[in-house]
Write a structure and sequence with these properties.
The protein is mainly beta. It has a single domain, classed as Jelly Rolls. 8% of the residues lie in helices and 41% in strands. The chain is built from 1 helix and 12 strands. The longest helix has 11 residues. The protein is globular, with a radius of gyration of 15 Å. The N and C termini lie far apart (31 Å).
Length: 142
Amino acid sequence: MEKIKVKNCKIIELPIIKDAHDGLISVANSMDNIPFEIKRTYYIYGLYNPYAIRGMHAHKKLQQVVFCINGSFNLSLDDGAKKQDYYMDKPNIGIYLGIELWHTMKNFSQDCILLIFASEYYNESDYIRNYDQFVKYIETKK
């Protein structure tokens, strides 16, 4: 497993519980293996367009953990100083996306399903949707 090198980001590994011959279970708990209280859960699917790109934004306050619970995709991370790509294809491995972290998701397999836990309810004013504005925002925080 590749180490995360960008700021405000880390790997979250959920335990895998073998249920005898009846499959596997992974459990995510708020304030335990998910490092915040979960206020919103959503999933992304139906990514049949091979050129689909999701994300392309950062958040001022929102924290998230993203899991690829089926299929695979590439997650690009950028903290304003360092960039890193991470290939996601294991349903029990998530990436914690902290504040002020530009993220882009692409190269989805057609069967890809992403599951995301968020620390806040949807709030458009929390988004930074322009990369140049993101860089300026990060510079003002230094």
